[in-house]
Amino acid sequence: MTAARPALSRRLRMMGAAVSIGAASMLSSVPAFARGPESIADTAEKVIDAVVNISTSQTIEANKGSGAMPQLPPGSPFEEFFDDFFKNRRGPPGKGGDKSGEFQPRKTNSLGSGFIVDTAGIVVTNNHVIADADEINVILNDGTKIKAELVGVDKKTDLAVLKFKPPKPLVAVKFGDSDKIRLGDWVVAIGNPFSLGGTVTAGIVSAKNRDISQGPYDSYIQTDAAINRGNSGGPLFNLEGEVIGVNTLIISPTGGSIGLGFAVPSKTVAGVVDQLQKFGELRRGWLGVRIQQVTDEIADSLNIKPARGALVAGVDDKGPAKPAGIEPGDVVVKFDGKDVKDPKDLSRIVADTAVGKEVDVVIIRKGNEETRKVTLGRLEDTDKVQQVNAKSKDDTAEKPVTQKALGLDLAALSKDLRTKYKIKDSVKGVVVTGVDSNSDAAEKRLSAGDVIVEVAQEAVASAADIKKRVDQLKKDGKKSVLLLVSNGDGELRFVALGVQ
């Protein structure tokens, strides 16, 4: 419900910059085009009537007796008025409160930005601009205010689509191809910073495919065009007047622009908008695997050079990958003809692929490339709750016979150990009962209660099996060994440990 919110709240330390004495004399030799376009007036004039302000209101219910503040989203332009806001809402009987001096329900307002993509009255903005709003209004560039309806939202990309009845002919803008933009390309941001409306700023594309850990599909365009609170949901244009991003986040220690703004790329936005208009919700593709990063150590263990792809750590028994023959330990390097550099790549590509489509998935298994055909399912939009495997401190059971390897104390799974570490009967392998605090295993966060299922992609049933496999790998000159590790609930992950 707010404007462009600070993505990170930490204070940034000014590092300073050294400028050489000769720098000033060099300016005259810099080509004119290096200083940017002569003017962006034509671009701004062409698109500004398609940029709108988004005004929302929300009723905050009283929380009698607690004095709790309403939870406005971070970055709200009204944050600075919190103290006065509450002083005005609470007071002695007959002066702002009820007879007992308690809070009364009040309306709060917020402002953001958006843009028209269809002259029928379709508007794109950020989800956080309109989240929890009781009423949403679109304000055109000439000041006309119209009530809008919510078509749909996608929280994972922070996008929303609105619809309103046009009171007159509208100007709409088109999406450009965000994949074609290059570092250093000039871009124009238009929005409603600090409720000023119709504000135009310009800058360059500072970075592409930026992952700032805000969501599962992070791939932001970074720009130094000035973006402030109130710009959220507004468009980022190329010089042709095409939308190549939706301004969503800023990094700032103060809440104002310091040249670190982030926009959702138009390639993502266009797909989301299309689905929200058609279905009112997102229907993302689902492969049915759990994946993890291919580290240099894991790549060495799997004979993959260079390190790349997404390592399959687990396969859902009811997912599309299972019947296609994809297994834990496979590394996905290409999906539907697109290269997969890391797990984030795979997540984004799968999510953007149509449900029900049959695709080729290229995997590396034991050093060899194979292609599997998979018919994608639909990702259910629910957050899976991860249960932490609680470790029992009950040491009354008989002490197990253990053997050491890789800095680990290892023992065969028994009924007592399953009970002690809450390990499901379906989990097979060798249980870790202790970890040397100075070992590589400790650094990789292995702990008592973990179960080693495979060593170098071969199943193990005893500590002796593990020691035998590790000794052989040492003789073969391997620097690391790849373990498939399960927690008590059966969730798998791969861990590479040094053996030399």
UniProtKB/TrEMBL annotation:
Query: EC annotation?
Result: 3.4.21.107
Residue positions of the active site: 128 (charge relay system), 158 (charge relay system), 232 (charge relay system)
Tell me which SUPFAM superfamilies the record gives: PDZ domain-like (SSF50156), Trypsin-like serine proteases (SSF50494)
For this protein, the record's Gene3D superfamilies field holds: 2.30.42.10, 2.40.10.120
Cellular location of this protein?
A: Periplasm
Q: What class of enzyme is it?
A: hydrolase
- The residues that the entry says bind substrate are 128, 158, 230-232
Which cellular components does GO assign to this protein? periplasmic space
A Pfam family hit: Trypsin_2
An example of a Gene Ontology BP annotation on this entry? proteolysis
Instruction: Give the reaction(s) catalysed.
Output: Acts on substrates that are at least partially unfolded. The cleavage site P1 residue is normally between a pair of hydrophobic residues, such as Val-|-Val
What positions does the domain PDZ occupy? Answer: 276-367, 387-488
Query: Keywords assigned by UniProt?
Result: Hydrolase, Periplasm, Protease, Repeat, Serine protease, Signal, Stress response
Span of the signal peptide: 1-34
**Which GO terms fall under molecular function for this chain's record?**
serine-type endopeptidase activity
SMART domains the record matches: PDZ
Q: NCBIfam families per the record?
A: degP_htrA_DO
Similarity comment: family membership = Belongs to the peptidase S1C family.
Q: What is this protein called?
A: Probable periplasmic serine endoprotease DegP-like
